[in-house]
């Protein structure tokens, strides 16, 4: 921006709110200038968040950036929830070590139907602009796509970390994957966005949007990236494909059990990225834990806050009561042995490898007798396979283990 504007105390306060939990804000001083100009002129900033409907449900990982968007919305800015129905057909190569299979139009339409309904649990639906990028991407046509491609070089595209690794490793990269960041960037041109939000894995794509706006003679958007929420396995980012997620439409009981399964150390990351508590309040909870407060109680409070947000307070109380009743007979301990396995595993082998049973035959006998529970649910199928995630496994009344399957 050519003209420097003095930043007011109100904008400095807004900046502190915006920067909470943020991984990176590019360019911070430029963004502050935009906030100040918006406050001075009364013209709200256009805040863009694009999501491809690659799965039918939104999980807590998605809500990290949605919550940041809601903060900006509450400051009076215009938020644009962009459903990438066109780009979903290509498949975002971000963080991928192989070409992502494209989705069919039917799959995309089914998934897109539920996306905004779920996002509206966080955003104010009456103040949210909903757009679909097929509206302008379909109109580009072959000529327009070629003209768009002429505005960015192969050298810059290949700078992208995942493309570089795949190229050096001899892993195929399809030409259409190069088009994805260009089309996501073109969304910013079409929407004339002032700010674009995304996860840290989206940084390259967001910066492409910034550069394309410059090519098209527009003011360049600021780029705000949020950390990726670690999934229940404590290792990978939360993802449906890795089955380490908590969906925001899951039952309160399921959400409660999953939140209680995360490690005590990961709990603090969830508090910072998901909780509405202030940083001072979270710091007070940390000090209480250091002074001897049972981390389980602090985790219960987190579970209830999240369930209240996506269901209601009564559902949160019932989920707590059901959780406590489920484990009352076995008196689930606060501390238990922890095991991590790299691959999905059958329940019989898991009991044997974790020492909860001395042999496969003993494990089978425990299951047959109804003495095995996973996250409080009695297991009757000896062929059960556990995929990626973290589970509390119980044998009898006294044997417990926290099992993490990382992939």
Automatic annotation (TrEMBL):
Gene3D superfamilies: HUPs (3.40.50.620), RNA-binding S4 domain (3.10.290.10), Tyrosyl-Transfer RNA Synthetase (1.10.240.10). A motif ('HIGH' region) lies at residues 53-62. Its EC number is 6.1.1.1. Its main location: cytoplasm. A motif ('KMSKS' region) lies at residues 237-241. It is found in: Cytoplasm. SMART domains: S4 (SM00363). ATP binds at residue 240. Pfam families: S4, tRNA-synt_1b. CDD domains: S4 (cd00165), TyrRS_core (cd00805). Coiled coil: none annotated. Signal peptide: none annotated. GO terms for cellular component: cytosol. InterPro entries: aa-tRNA-synth_I_CS, aa-tRNA-synth_Ic, Rossmann-like_a/b/a_fold, S4_RNA-bd, S4_RNA-bd_sf, Tyr-tRNA-ligase, Tyr-tRNA-ligase_bac-type, Tyr-tRNA-ligase_bac_2. Catalyzes the attachment of tyrosine to tRNA(Tyr) in a two-step reaction: tyrosine is first activated by ATP to form Tyr-AMP and then transferred to the acceptor end of tRNA(Tyr). Homodimer. Belongs to the class-I aminoacyl-tRNA synthetase family. TyrS type 2 subfamily. HAMAP family: Tyr_tRNA_synth_type2. This is Tyrosine--tRNA ligase. It comes from Pelistega ratti. The gene is tyrS.
